[in-house]
Write a structure and sequence with these properties.
The protein has a single domain, classed as Aldolase class I (TIM Barrel, Alpha-Beta Barrel). It has eleven helices and eight strands. An eight-stranded parallel sheet has the order 7-6-5-4-3-2-1-8. The radius of gyration is 17 Å and the shape is globular.
């Protein structure tokens, strides 16, 4: 974690916590914010909760994210949602390119780049996800694969001055209980920082690189303590306010040098 970059802790609720359960969890996250000053908290509930959560979070420091968008502003795209619609719901952030979108819904690198561009064009901050499969890691392909994914949207984020985030999520660690060790995570995060720096020193400085993949309170401090890990994109642990808060507190402790 670098002292010049404010830690970002984001919770991706996936297809969990709709309705009253989602609003209850959003309320619990709102209560966390004053306890972790110096850390940016973002939550990504299901679409059905976004508008109500935005109203509840109004006036707080908790950011609201959507889990996906379609790169067109409007049109005959049944079942999709656009960046302007997400802004209407009160979103400030949007997750793009998550491995589950890539695996189950065919999101390609090119489509992810279009989604990043669409988000930025409507003042939504993207959390752009990258990561390798287990077969790619075992084949020594991790850096090649991740570099290809980053390069797909690199020009787009370089042309913007927005504080975008990139989330490195090794696919083999998502929801499996497995996680990359701090050294493995730092290797990829440092490589991403180098690729950003090759494009622009300013881009490398302002971009927060998050780690995702079975982040829990008991491994958060080790991962967040890596020099190029600026936060976390959390799945399962974000569904429990206590666990989510404990990870945010670990980030706060590290940011304060304690």
């Amino acid at each position: 974690m670098h002292p010049k970059r404010r830690p970002l802790i984001a919770g991706n609720w996936k297809m969990f916590k709709g309705g009253p359960a989602g609003l209850e969890l959003a309320g619990a996250c709102k209560e966390l914010a004053p306890k972790v000053r110096g850390v940016d908290l973002v939550i990504a509930p299901p679409f059905t909760v976004l508008a109500a959560a935005a109203a509840d979070l109004d006036g707080t420091t908790v950011g609201l994210a959507a889990q996906n968008l379609y790169p067109k502003d409007s049109g005959a795209f049944t079942g999709e949602i656009s960046a302007p619609m997400l802004k209407e719901c009160g979103c400030a952030w949007v997750i793009v390119g998550h491995s589950e979108r890539r695996q189950y819904f065919g999101d390609t690198d090119a489509l992810v780049a279009d989604k990043v561009a669409a988000a930025l064009s409507h003042d939504l901050l993207p959390i752009a996800c990258v990561g390798e499969t287990l077969a790619q890691r075992e084949g020594g392909e991790t850096l090649r694969v991740v570099k290809q994914q980053v390069e797909a949207f690199l020009d787009v984020i370089a042309q913007s001055k927005a504080a975008v985030a990139i989330a490195y999520e090794p696919v083999w660690a998502i929801g499996t209980g497995k996680t990359a060790g701090p050294a493995e995570a730092e290797e990829v995060h440092a490589a991403i920082r180098t690729w950003l720096s090759n494009k622009s020193a300013e881009l490398a400085e302002r971009t927060r690189i998050l780690y995702g993949g079975s982040v829990k309170p008991d491994n958060a401090e080790g991962l967040l303590g890596c020099p190029n890990v600026d936060g976390a994109l959390i799945g399962g642990a974000s569904l429990d306010a206590g666990s989510f808060g404990a990870i945010a507190e670990a980030a706060q402790k590290l940011a304060q040098g304690k």
